[in-house]
């Protein structure tokens, strides 16, 4: 995988582009407009600089990664890619549109078309293309450069060869630990994580405990790196809501149903770190 494409340069896409470029690939990053592209590039640059400042990444490797990256709003620049990883917002219509476009522009008949969706069935995105055997889920965790897991999700139609190539790429050059999941909403991690986050939001909403006490309880009492409300702020309330809705739609189990507070805060634009206000406040 020497020619990689990443569609979407938000929280997840910028992290995926960063690790792919650090692994030595030529990476083309596509965003919908110039503004989103500039924001994504700034996010990636700030992550790389922090990695250098903390001694995690040598300056030479960061410079090489910068040279490996190019940014565009033109989808046709993906034509010669061997793998394209889609990481746009968690919206089925939008992702389906991206896959239909990728099917038209990516000319390599062996190219892998991967999605970082957290919850949308891979088969639905695969069926938007004429090559469902090459479509697969590659689910990363935020922050992508720090967290070592990738869930690989094959649909009913993904070929064994595509699955093997993606396993090899994620665990080799990208240095991730791979787990496999069936093509069910939430896969392995979110099917466990989302009910936990929703329970914390219900606890807050019912007045059972304060946001500070809920998070302190889990950080100090259970040694989690961050509490569930701070983690929801990190993931984004809109993304958490979208994943919960997909899980609820698929399984109809009450513990997947999003609490009204999560919906209202998302509707109000209180999305967590990315909007600087969620369950907690964040400085610019
Ligand atoms: N490359 C490599 N290393 C980097 C880096 C980069 N670009 N940027 C930062 N780092 C390193 C830092 O140097 C630091 O290393 P040390 O611990 O050795 O000092 C480490 O990564 C952590 O960096 P931070 O400065 O950000 O420090 P932190 O200690 O405040 O940790 C956190 C923040 C990593 C987010 C941690 O709190 C954490 O792991 N939280 C849990 C996050 C989690 O659960 N994510 C999963 C969300 S679910 C999801 O993503 C999927 C979904 O579908 C919803």
Please provide a brief summary of the model.
47% of the residues lie in helices and 14% in strands. It has 284 residues and is an alpha/beta fold.
Keywords:
284 residues; alpha/beta; 8-stranded mixed β-sheet; 11 helices; 8 strands; globular; binds acetoacetyl-coenzyme A
Q: How do the strands line up in the largest sheet?
A: 3-2-1-4-5-6-7-8
Instruction: Report the sheet with the most strands, covering strand number, pairing sense and barrel closure.
Output: 8 strands, mixed
Helix content: 40-55%
Tell me the strand percentage band: 5-15%
Overall, the morphology is globular
Question: Roughly what is the average pLDDT, rounded to an integer?
Answer: 97
What class would the helix/strand composition place it in? alpha/beta
What is the CA-atom radius of gyration, in angstroms? 19 Å
Q: What is the H-and-E element order? A: EHEHHEEHEHEEHEHHHHH
Model regions low in confidence, pLDDT < 50 over at least 5 residues? none
List the ions, cofactors and other small molecules found in this model.
Answer: acetoacetyl-coenzyme A
């Amino acid at each position: 995988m020497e020619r990689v494409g990443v569609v979407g340069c938000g929280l997840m896409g910028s992290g995926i582009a960063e690790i792919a470029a650090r692994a030595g690939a030529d990476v083309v990053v596509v965003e919908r407009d110039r503004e989103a592209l500039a924001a994504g590039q700034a996010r990636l640059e700030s992550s790389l600089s922090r990695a250098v400042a903390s001694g995690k990444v040598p300056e030479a490797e960061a410079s090489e990664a910068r040279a490996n990256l190019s940014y565009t709003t033109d989808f046709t620049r993906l034509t010669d890619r061997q793998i394209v990883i889609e990481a746009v917002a968690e919206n089925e219509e939008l992702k389906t549109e991206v896959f239909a476009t990728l099917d038209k522009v990516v000319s390599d008949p062996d190219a892998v078309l991967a999605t970082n969706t957290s919850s949308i069935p891979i088969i639905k995105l695969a069926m938007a293309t004429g090559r469902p055997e090459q479509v697969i889920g590659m689910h990363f965790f935020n922050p992508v450069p720090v967290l070592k897991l990738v869930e690989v999700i094959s649909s009913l139609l993904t070929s064994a060869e595509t699955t093997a190539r993606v396993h090899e790429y994620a665990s080799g050059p990208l240095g991730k630990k791979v787990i496999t999941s069936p093509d069910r909403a939430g896969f392995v991690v979110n099917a466990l994580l989302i009910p936990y986050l929703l329970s914390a939001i219900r606890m807050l909403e019912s007045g059972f405990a304060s946001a500070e006490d809920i998070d302190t309880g889990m950080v100090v009492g259970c040694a989690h790196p961050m509490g569930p409300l701070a983690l929801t702020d990190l993931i984004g309330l809109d993304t958490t809501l979208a994943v919960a809705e997909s899980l609820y739609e698929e399984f109809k189990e009450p513990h997947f149903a999003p609490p009204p507070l999560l919906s209202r805060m998302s509707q109000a634009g209180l999305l967590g770190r990315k909007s600087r206000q969620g369950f907690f406040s964040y400085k610019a």
